[in-house]
């Protein structure tokens, strides 16, 4: 039976890397005999907003809920639509309404890519950021008071529910359990944020009791960011709140040379709703329209999607192909962010050809 994939390219380079993501998936589907059926949607982009006055149609939930997965590019074009409107009107709705409470973001220094951190080689940086994805600092609790006066106040509360915290911690501990080093690092800030973050630490300590074989440590987010740069080899599975996970999942990939290769899986582990796969990066207005965006973040997200759908071998083959093409280091093929002179298409085609065998 066909696996039904909803495709939403979004804005900017989202529309440029998406075709390469699909090209790689089609090559993989052919090689492994997987039946993938793609359905493209125009909504979830700023151009859709300019035409319809909203990011999504009213029945988007009904339209998408039956799909096996969502494959997203990137959304946001601040000159057309303010970011908080475009993002809260699309991506953040998907994450929340489809209860994609895990945002899994691998971070790996690939062969052939130079880390900006001196002396780091493949193997030195290889960890996962597990980001809480439906609550925390990204809450809709708050508001404005005394607007337009000198007494103006804006409040946005951080929300941590026991269920919300425990379920992301459990996922992260389970993931650490599968890794050779069996190590989990918690991102906190319980010295300064005195209610929610001590609560986070308490829940980590409680969960750790059920995983005696996992080595657990924690760092405040300020020194944790420093340690990402100074000692990236310390990390294996890093778990953080929505905002901390967001920051760490740009910083980690930057340490691996470019955020253009970083993938993410927004997962509803129970499978009650479709999960969403998208690169970590955004729509990159500064390079959009030039055909030079790195498509690897999109392609690797496709690999995560196949693994999620039960095709681990096929997903691994996609990542192997990415590594092989990067290792070859052909500057005519590679994009600029990884030191080449090639295009989104040249890199995407090279990876698809490699997958094809
Ligand atoms: P960004 O990730 O779009 O770009 C940051 C920098 O990284 C830019 O210099 C860009 O050129 C570069 N870059 C990003 N992806 C690249 C790629 N594939 N290849 C080569 N270089 C790449 O972040 P931003 O500039 O903060 O945001 C731009 C827009 O995207 C905003 O509207 C923002 O809200 C949105 N955004 C969306 C998502 C998402 O859809 N998940 C994520 C982040 C930002
Ligand atoms: C990401 C992005 C989003 C986030 C933005 C665009 C709302 O930065 O997916 O990392 O903060 O989650
Ligand atoms: Mn981000």
Instruction: Outline the low-pLDDT stretches.
Output: none
CATH fold description of the largest domain: Isopropylmalate Dehydrogenase
Cα-atom radius of gyration? 20 Å
Helix/strand class: alpha/beta
Strand order of the largest sheet: 2-1-3-12-11-4-5-10-8-9
Under the CATH scheme, which class of the largest domain? Alpha Beta
* Helical stretch tally: 12
User: Which CATH architecture of the largest domain would you pick?
Assistant: 3-Layer(aba) Sandwich
> What spatial form do the alpha-carbon principal axes imply?
globular
User: Helix coverage percent of residues?
Assistant: 25-40%
Helix-strand topology string: EHEHHEHHEEEEHEHEHEHEEHHH
Strand content: 15-25%
> What is the CATH homology-level superfamily of the largest domain?
Isopropylmalate Dehydrogenase
Question: What does this 3D model show about the protein?
Answer:
Its cofactor is Mg(2+); Mn(2+). Belongs to the isocitrate and isopropylmalate dehydrogenases family. Keywords: Manganese, Metal-binding, NAD, Oxidoreductase. This is D-malate dehydrogenase (decarboxylating). The chain has 357 residues and is α/β, with parallel strands linked by helices. The protein has two domains: 1-110 and 260-357, 3-Layer(aba) Sandwich (Isopropylmalate Dehydrogenase), CATH 3.40.718; 126-255, Isopropylmalate Dehydrogenase, CATH 3.40.718. 39% of the residues lie in helices and 19% in strands. The strands form two sheets. A ten-stranded mixed sheet has the order 2-1-3-12-11-4-5-10-8-9, with helices on both faces. Strands 6-7 form a two-stranded antiparallel ribbon. Helix 7 links the parallel strand 8 (183-188) and strand 9. Helix 6 packs across helix 7. Bound molecules: nicotinamide-adenine-dinucleotide (NAD), 3-isopropylmalic acid and manganese (II) ion. The site of manganese (II) ion has 2 residues, from helix 9.
């Amino acid at each position: 039976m066909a696996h039904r994939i909803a495709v939403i390219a979004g804005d900017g380079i989202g529309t440029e890397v998406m075709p390469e993501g699909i090209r790689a998936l089609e090559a993989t589907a052919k090689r492994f005999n997987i039946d993938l059926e793609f359905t493209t949607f125009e909504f979830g982009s700023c151009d859709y907003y300019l035409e319809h006055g909203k990011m999504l149609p009213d029945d988007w939930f009904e339209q998408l809920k039956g799909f096996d997965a969502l494959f997203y590019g990137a959304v946001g074009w601040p000159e057309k639509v303010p970011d908080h409107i475009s993002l809260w009107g699309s991506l953040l709705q998907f994450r929340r309404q489809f209860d994609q409470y895990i945002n899994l973001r691998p971070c790996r220094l690939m062969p052939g890519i130079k880390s900006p951190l001196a002396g780091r080689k493949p193997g030195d940086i290889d960890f996962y950021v597990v980001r809480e994805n439906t609550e925390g600092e990204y809450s809709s609790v708050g508001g404005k008071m005394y607007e337009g006066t000198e007494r103006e106040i804006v409040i946005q509360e951080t929300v941590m529910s026991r269920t919300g915290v425990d379920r992301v911690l459990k996922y992260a501990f389970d993931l650490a359990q599968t890794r050779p080093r069996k190590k989990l690092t918690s991102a906190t800030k319980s010295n300064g944020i005195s209610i929610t973050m001590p609560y986070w630490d308490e829940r980590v300590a409680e969960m750790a009791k059920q995983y005696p074989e996992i080595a657990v440590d924690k760092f405040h987010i300020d020194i944790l960011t420093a340690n990402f740069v100074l000692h990236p080899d310390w990390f294996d599975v890093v778990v953080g709140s929505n905002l901390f996970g967001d920051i760490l999942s740009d910083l980690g990939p930057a340490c691996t040379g470019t955020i253009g290769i970083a993938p993410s899986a927004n997962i509803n582990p129970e499978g009650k709703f479709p999960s969403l796969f998208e690169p970590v990066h955004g729509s990159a207005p500064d390079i959009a329209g030039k055909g030079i965006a790195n498509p690897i973040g999109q392609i690797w997200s496709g690999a995560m999607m196949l693994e999620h759908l039960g095709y681990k071998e096929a997903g691994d083959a996609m990542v192997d192909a990415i590594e092989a093409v990067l290792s070859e280091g052909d500057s005519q093929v590679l994009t600029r962010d990884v030191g080449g002179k090639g295009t989104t298409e040249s890199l995407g085609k090279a990876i698809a050809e490699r997958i094809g065998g």
